[in-house]
């Protein structure tokens, strides 16, 4: 009897740990992608993006769409949060993705007060508008 209870408890614990581990990873959902992709984003490329960022409760904290001005940055150069540097690799111009970024790949333990709370999972709707000065493959 005790061994069954122990086995059940261990199985439940394993399930809880598996779910927790799964939620601590970057999730990349491709929303739409062009039929043809002549070029994919890679480290060193200057990307021009539109984005909308929200928290778990759905509240928006930032959006380039609202400013009607794209956001430009160099992919892989640490100019943005790690979740972007990882989640925007291999994108085609015109592609749209939804990124779910765990706090470890975003603003960490302390957040970015008052806009981003501590340990916040972030959600981004992103669209790659242009790859500027793309670096050639070596």
UniProtKB/TrEMBL annotation:
The molecular function terms of the Gene Ontology recorded here are:
peptidyl-prolyl cis-trans isomerase activity
Q: Which InterPro entries match?
A: FKBP2/11, PPIase_dom_sf, PPIase_FKBP_dom
List the GO cellular component terms.
Answer: endoplasmic reticulum
Q: What positions does the domain PPIase FKBP-type occupy?
A: 44-132
Q: Which Pfam families match?
A: FKBP_C
| Enzyme Commission number(s) of this protein | 5.2.1.8
Taxonomically, the superkingdom here is: Eukaryota
Q: Does the keyword Flavoprotein apply?
A: no
Q: Does the record's keyword annotation contain S-adenosyl-L-methionine?
A: no
What is catalysed by this protein?
[protein]-peptidylproline (omega=180) = [protein]-peptidylproline (omega=0)
Query: Where would one find the signal peptide in this protein?
Result: 1-21
Keywords (A to Z) from UniProt:
Isomerase, Rotamase, Signal
Annotated PANTHER family: PEPTIDYLPROLYL ISOMERASE (PTHR45779)
Protein name as it appears in the record: peptidylprolyl isomerase
- According to its UniProt entry, this protein's organism is Catenaria anguillulae PL171
